[in-house]
Amino acid sequence: MTGKDSLTVEQQSLEVEYKKTGINPSDIAALRRWLKTQPHLPEKYITDLDLILIYFCCYKSSAVSKEVLDLHYTLKTLFTNIFHNRVVDERIIKTLNVVLVVPLPIRSYDNNHVVYHKLIDCDTKNFIFSDVIRVVLMLMDLRQFEDGTWPGFIILIDLSGVTLGHIAKLDLLTVQQLLYYLQEAMLVKLKGLHFMNAPSYVDKLLMVIKPFMKKELLNTLCIHQVGSNTLEKVLPLEALPKDAGGQYKTFEEAKNYAIEKALANKDFFENENKKRVVESLRPGKPRTITDIFGGVEGSFKKLEID
Fold this sequence. Notes:
single chain, 306 residues
């Protein structure tokens, strides 16, 4: 595998993943056999690493894995404003000049992978929420391709620079789709959603997102007020970027690295775009957005908190 600071990423080794997770290759082969019986799913583009990510985040349950696999690719097909035609183009580069996405080099104290997010261009006219989420999730997929599984995953959002004007631009369609994907179909064991440098009006942000959050995610939500020292109970503060009080890269270095990495991995996203569902081939009735949000599907993937 390439080193973490090389730009063109290579897929994490399956051998490493089997050893790391204790997953039996025969379980992945069984999942593959089932996948071949599902004509609507993009079986020829789904890799064994994809199947390992699914099986691991579903706590090695074959039944849950099948449901989450179907839902993961279904949502990536139906949620077009954040997943359709993912290409590294001018719009993506512009967005990477607005939002910083930094996988931190040190794990949390309970061994979870932490990704730090922050606005670096705080001009509200440059803030397009759906584009920000599109970029964040693109880089997330690229990172998982490179790293494979993580014991758990923490989302850390630095709210310094976020204004009421930004909160007013959170379109509810994207908020709803993001939080549904995050809770039901993202291929991670989500262990925390942390907001740091929270301003006095953070309640306005919470009013927007809480209606779409289930009890399990609400239980992992942590608000770290401006000036508080609560975050240092979660992870070593030196893991943060230099401009955020840590010892890692500066914001400028992290931004440039993210842009260069995205540009170096255009092929990855071209291939990822093929992993979509053909609803007309689905046995039974095709699924629609109405099915997803009509409350009839239930919850397959639980957030499990250790």
